[in-house]
Write a structure and sequence with these properties.
This protein is an alpha+beta fold. About 30% of the residues lie in helices and about 35% in strands. The strands form two sheets. It has a five-stranded mixed β-sheet, with no helix packed on it. It has a four-stranded antiparallel β-sheet with strand order 1-2-4-7. A hairpin with a 5-residue loop joins β8 and β9 (about 140-145). α1 packs antiparallel against α3 (about 150-184). It is elongated.
């Protein structure tokens, strides 16, 4: 009887570990096509990385930036066609409306290595990083930025494995107690 319970507990722990590790996906372990920091338009791709070394020197973020204040950003122009055209970069308050309040802007004409770097200082809230490749045709990319805001979807996904493990343990404990009560 005890061996069976141990086997069930072991299976439950393995299952909860498997379910939990299935939700873990590091930013660097995905292909460019599946990377949430990549935007594609007409076959051209751009990749955004943001950093806040004053808070965590090793962390790389995309659109969810954990702290307000100075944030360094790197825009990688993946396709060579973008590297030969001027690129206009704007950060506007709100969601995607280029007529909104412009917080920061930059115009780059020299980026033959495919990298454009900069820094912005943003307060808590929602912003949009607008990247426009000025050419024929014009290429337009948008990155929604959330500065020090709570992403409830990500929070829910991070809690689900613990809830499942708790429910599994509660179920197994209930079954064990009922079976023990029947034997006595």
């Amino acid at each position: 009887m005890m061996k069976k319970i141990k086997k069930i507990w072991t299976l439950g722990m393995i299952l909860s570990t498997f379910l939990y590790s299935g939700f873990v996906a590091a930013h660097g372990k995905v292909s460019l096509e599946n990377d949430v920091c990549v935007r594609m338009m007409a076959g051209s791709m751009v990749h955004l990385s943001t950093y806040q070394p004053q808070h965590d020197p090793q962390a790389e973020y995309c659109t969810e930036i954990p702290h307000e204040g100075e944030t360094f950003w790197v825009l990688d122009l993946i396709d060579h066609a973008l590297r030969t055209m001027p690129v206009d970069i704007k950060v506007v308050r709100g969601s995607g409306d280029s007529t909104g309040d412009t917080v920061a802007s930059m115009y780059s004409t020299s980026h033959s290595d495919g990298v454009i770097k900069g820094a912005f200082n943003l307060d808590k809230g929602n912003y949009t990083l607008l990247v426009t490749g000025v050419g024929i045709p014009s290429l337009h990319y948008e990155f929604p930025l959330q500065i020090q805001t709570t992403n409830y979807t990500k929070l829910f996904i991070s809690v689900v494995p613990y809830i499942l493990a708790f429910l599994l343990i509660a179920f197994m404990t209930d079954k064990y107690l009922k079976r023990r009560q029947l034997l006595h």
